[in-house]
Amino acid sequence: MRLPRLPRSSFAALALVTSLGAIGVACATSPTDRPAVDDTLPDGAPATLPDGAPATLPDGAPATLPDGAPATLPDGAPVPLPDASTDGAVLADGAVVPTNRVSCGGTFCRGDQACVSGRCEFSCTGTQVPGDYATLANAVSALNPTGGTICLKAGTFSESVSISGTAGKTLTIVGLNSATTKVNTITVGTGYDSVTIRGIDTSLRASGRSKLDATAIAGEVYAQSNGPQEIRIDGANLGGTAASPKSYGLYVYPGSGGGAPKVTLTNSYIHDTSNGVYIYNNYGSSEVSVVNTTFASNDIGLNYVSGSYPLTLTYSNNIFLNQRTYAVSLVSTVQNLVHENNLLFGNQNNYSGTAADGADYLKVDPMLDTGAPPEPRQGSPARRSSLASRAPAVDFYGIARGATSDRGCVQSP
């Protein structure tokens, strides 16, 4: 499908911000304000809009004609797409806009979000904060006996919220968007059958049954338990920045009471940490599964540091790109280990300890774009090479993977 035609009255250039959920800024240049230059396309043909006016970007760089080819900035980055579905469009860096993905305010929405006023948002029906309650803590306390759904509006909630509930009940907390809804820390204790957190930027400590869905983690996720625990993380952005890395993306730590956490991580992006996934089994056993996740620019991607108790570990269909020390470090022998179909490239060292190659490993450039999360460009060996039996049904954006899945967290079309 071709990109939408440019309007006659203006040429819009949007500033693309690659951080999750950031909002692009639109700059329009009217025909009378255009630079009076005879701009040309790379082949020397004059670039004009349908009304005959020369088409130029604000810095004077040439823009492609409205014939379906994308306009590019001087550094080769694509001019962001308008807020509309653009199935199959090819961007300047070779990435392809997947079927059913919607661009919105300089980013892409998940399949379960809508574009509202240039921002991707989840819909939510339930207890409103602020509104029904002034704080998240007050809403959590009020819903303790019954469970239910809490809808957090955009804003920063400077709260440290502890959650414990009633057996047989569930609690869901939904933020409009993890770029605009922030909570300092959330601690999930025992009681509820499950706690789901969606669309919130937070730090999480979980000792009860919980699920993170489409959540950005400003701090770390600690899965620590003195008893049975299950935590599921899907479509999460875990990490810091190059200037300010985090210690952990996900920390799995069975407590001294003999806890046995079961942790499943899928479709997630772990970056700029000392330890992407850190497993410490000195006080109890654990079961950890890491599937279709992209690790980028960590010191160590997957790090198992102690094995006094049994570990069941599965890691498949992942991409380990540019880890500064090791992609995978298994200091102790893993009693129950399954690993296959991972792609490793650009790491200082691929393995440490007992870590080694598995079935259908690739050690080639995955050809990812510069997005956050990065995704396979056209021609990438990560495309259509996942082990289908391990791949989740949807990707980081909640878009169906189909019968042939890509490695890493994002499915290309």
Name the features.
single chain; 413 residues; mainly beta; Pectate Lyase C-like; 2 domains; 14-stranded parallel β-sheet; ten-stranded parallel β-sheet; 30 strands; 2% helix; 37% strand; globular; disordered N terminus
Q: In summary, what is this structure?
A:
By secondary structure, this protein is an all-beta fold. Helices cover 2% and strands 37% of the residues.
How many helices does DSSP assign? 1
Describe the sheet with the most strands: 14 strands, parallel
Q: N- to C-terminal separation?
A: 12 Å
The domain count comes to 2
Unreliable parts:
1-89
Helix/strand/pairing class, anyone? mainly beta
Helicity level = under 10%
Helices and strands in order:
Blueprint: E1 11-14, E2 26-29, E3 103-104, E4 107-108, E5 114-116, E6 119-121, E7 127-129, H1 136-142, E8 148-152, E9 155-163, E10 170-175, E11 181-188, E12 194-198, E13 201-206, E14 210-213, E15 216-225, E16 228-234, E17 237-239, E18 246-254, E19 260-266, E20 269-271, E21 273-280, E22 286-291, E23 294-296, E24 300-306, E25 311-316, E26 319-321, E27 326-330, E28 336-340, E29 343-345, E30 351-353
Parallel strand pairs: 7-8, 8-10, 9-11, 10-12, 11-13, 12-14, 13-15, 14-16, 15-17, 15-18, 16-19, 17-20, 18-21, 19-22, 20-23, 21-24, 22-25, 23-26, 24-27, 25-28, 26-29, 27-30
Antiparallel strand pairs: 1-2, 3-4, 5-6
